[in-house]
Amino acid sequence: MTHLDEGQLLAVRDGESQHEHLVECADCRKGLAELRGRHDRVSGALAALDAPTDLEVARALIRTRVTAGAAHTADVVPLTIPPRRAFWSLSRAAGLLLVTAAGLSALPGSPVRHWASRVLAPEAPRQGTERAPTPASAPSSAEAEATGIRLAVPRGPLRVIVGGAETGAVIRVQWVPGAEAAIFAPAGSRFTSGEGRLEAQVTSGTVRIELPRGVLPVSLEVGGRIYLRSTDAGLDVPGPVTRQSTSEIVFRIP
Predict the structure, then answer these.
(1) pLDDT above 70: residue 254
(2) Mind listing the pLDDT tens digit for each residue in 227-243?
């Protein structure tokens, strides 16, 4: 007995043809049932992909997990300026998605087939809507040479100590959201840290400090002198201030 091949079974499954052979052949009926089962599973998976995603909920879950991980580890991350970049780029993620979609589109009767053919096909340029890309600004030489550390600080107290700064040096303190403190100083500076403590022995030049708004109490000590202290009672700034706002305090060492 000659059995139906896979192409003929696919045609029957998709309603493109009929074969009387199926009435008398149990093996071919079994093969047709397996093809239909695979088709239903793939269609169900594709339908699940169409479910809407609440981006705000997803972002909240990610922030919760990051904060919880920081509370247990309090890792110190050495870094340089400009800030570190994500390992996976959007272009690589998009490429993976398109490759997966292209594989699914090969299945006969797949609802992805028509979508993938439009996405993978080159798109004709649109008239009057294209914009020239804006070149990214290059970091200044001082920023490119600065080094620093970050410390996860889920709760206070936090003590920041700066040593070695010379007369006329600028200490720039910025209040930031989140639960991370950081110090950035010119290349050649040395940094140490411990639980609730960041310390920098700096070379000549500007020092930038990031303090998390929600962490109390916080103190800043420069050259053995208290420049800033923030507690539940309020903010005390006995250091030599040259400029102060709600987001930044700038000191200059006398």
Answers:
(1) yes
(2) 999 999 999 999 999 99
Sheet with 234-236, edge to edge strand ranges: 190-194, 197-201, 158-163, 218-222, 225-231, 234-236
Does the pTM surpass 0.85? The reply is no
Kindly report the three-state secondary structure assignment for every residue of the chain. CCCCCHHHHHHHHCCCCCCCHHHHCHHHHHHHHHHHHHHHHHHHHHHHHCCCCCHHHHHHHHHHHHHHHHHHHCCEEEEECCCCCCCCCHHHHHHHHHHHHHHHHCCCCCCHHHHHHHHHCCCCCCCCCCCCCCCCCCCCHHHHHCEEEEEECCCCCEEEEEECCCCCCEEEEEEECCCEEEEEECCCCEEEEECCEEEEECCCCCEEEEEECCCCCEEEEECCEEEEEEECCEEECCCCEEEECCCEEEEECC
How far is CA 47 from its chain centroid?
27
**CA 27, 28, 29, 30 torsion: positive or negative?**
positive
Could you read off the pLDDT of 99-121 as tens digits, one per residue?
444 454 444 445 545 454 454 44
CB atoms within 10 A of CB 83: 7
